[in-house]
């Protein structure tokens, strides 16, 4: 006797002219075995559906086809609405390569650059809008600088510091230095864009991950899971991916530089974009949030847990710092070369 989920899947797959034989659940994706092969049936929140499908159609119209294809039902629908969920069908591609695979990162960043290149356009940005963004961000960061300093002073007044406070105080100057660097870059961006009335926007993937970049049997890479796609600055794809990648033990993150080289080779940032990118990349927001959480808590704290988290966030910050400084050195060399060129 069939249970309710099995009947539901059978009905959904039947709308594509397929006969369900077996299904395996992988998160929100069902791997469905049918009379015509294996497919991926994906469930998503219906509110995202209209935008998601519209952007997929737009990408195809603009000539970008490195997307895992979405199959239509027999009556031509590209998604099936049931209750608050939307279902769509794709071919099943094995994802044997995981986040640690270096070549896959390079392929992903090259393909991301291609996606951004094909969809890039200039959009008008008013002076007031830029100034508002700058003032809002700078004010928040300056406030967080003051708060961090007060936390440090509060710790130093203790006769016996807690393990977390002691570790925080030893890291304070480096965290504060990251805040200052990011704020200075933001100020440089504001000065560089004073007379700019436009900015580049692209269709972003929205949830960039190696898990959402799959190879077919010929080794060709395709993006999947465009459910959080939209139009935004290209840095909105890069920053979350890099932030996750930096959550490791401290290391010389040269492969991170290689990933960005693969991207910038095909979609180079202009000066203003690089300033804003470096500013947001460098700002140590994660470690600040943890420190703020510790000092804001009035309950008895689990010192071992907090110290371990602080150490992990510090490593994350140092990995980020390594990449930021490498990029900063390159930008400085470019400026020196540009300055020297007219006199040669």
Describe this structure in words.
- The protein is of the alpha+beta class and 344 residues long.
- It is built from ten helices and ten strands.
- The strands form three sheets. Strands 1-2-3-5-4 form a five-stranded antiparallel sheet, covered by helices on one side. The protein has a three-stranded antiparallel sheet with strand order 6-7-10. Strands 8-9 form a two-stranded antiparallel ribbon.
- A hairpin with a 2-residue loop joins strand 4 and strand 5.
- Helix 5 packs antiparallel against helix 8 (271-282) and helix 5 runs parallel beside helix 10.
- The relative contact order is 0.11.
- The mean pLDDT is 91.
Instruction: Tell me the span between the first and last alpha carbons.
Output: 84 Å
Structure class: alpha+beta
The gyration radius over C-alpha positions equals 24 Å
Mean pLDDT: 91
Q: Could you give the order of strands across the largest sheet?
A: 1-2-3-5-4
The profile of the biggest β sheet is:
5 strands, antiparallel
Q: What percentage of the residues does DSSP assign to strands (E)?
A: 15-25%
Low-pLDDT stretches are: none
The count of helical stretches stands at: 10
How is the secondary structure organized here?
Layout lengths: L3 H11 L5 E7 L2 E6 L2 E9 L3 H13 L18 E3 L2 E7 L10 H18 L1 E4 L2 H30 L6 H30 L5 E7 L8 E3 L5 E3 L6 E3 L2 H11 L8 H11 L6 H12 L2 H12 L6 H38 L4
Antiparallel strand pairs: 1-2, 2-3, 3-5, 4-5, 6-7, 7-10, 8-9
């Amino acid at each position: 006797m069939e249970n309710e989920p099995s009947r539901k899947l059978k009905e959904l797959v039947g709308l594509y002219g397929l006969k369900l034989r077996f299904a395996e659940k992988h998160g929100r994706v069902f791997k469905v075995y049918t009379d015509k092969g294996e497919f991926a049936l994906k469930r998503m929140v219906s509110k995202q559906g209209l935008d998601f499908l519209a952007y997929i159609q737009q990408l195809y119209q603009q000539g970008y086809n490195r997307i895992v294809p979405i199959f239509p039902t027999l009556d031509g629908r590209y998604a099936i609405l049931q209750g608050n969920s939307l279902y769509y069908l794709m071919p099943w591609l094995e994802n044997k390569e995981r986040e640690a695979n270096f070549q896959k990162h390079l392929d992903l960043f090259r393909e991301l650059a291609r996606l951004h290149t094909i969809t890039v356009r200039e959009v008008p940005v008013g002076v007031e809008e830029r100034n508002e963004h700058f003032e809002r961000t700078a004010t928040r960061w300056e406030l967080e600088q003051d708060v961090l300093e007060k936390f440090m002073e509060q710790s130093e007044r203790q006769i016996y510091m807690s393990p977390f406070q002691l570790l925080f105080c030893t890291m304070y100057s480096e965290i504060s230095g990251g805040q200052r660097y990011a704020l200075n870059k933001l100020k440089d961006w504001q000065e560089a864009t004073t007379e700019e009335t436009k900015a580049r926007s692209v269709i972003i993937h929205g949830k960039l991950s190696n898990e959402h970049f799959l190879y077919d049997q010929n080794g060709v890479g395709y993006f999947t899971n465009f459910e959080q796609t939209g139009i935004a600055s290209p840095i909105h794809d890069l920053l979350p991916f890099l932030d996750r990648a930096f959550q490791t033990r401290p290391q010389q993150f040269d492969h991170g530089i290689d990933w960005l080289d693969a991207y910038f080779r095909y979609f180079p940032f202009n000066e203003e974009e690089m300033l804003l990118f470096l500013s947001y990349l460098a700002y140590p927001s994660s470690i600040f949030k943890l420190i703020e959480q510790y000092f804001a808590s009035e309950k008895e704290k689990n010192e071992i847990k907090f110290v371990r988290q602080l150490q992990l966030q510090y490593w994350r910050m140092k990995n980020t710092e390594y990449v930021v400084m490498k990029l900063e050195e390159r930008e400085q060399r470019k400026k020196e070369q540009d300055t020297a060129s007219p006199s040669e």
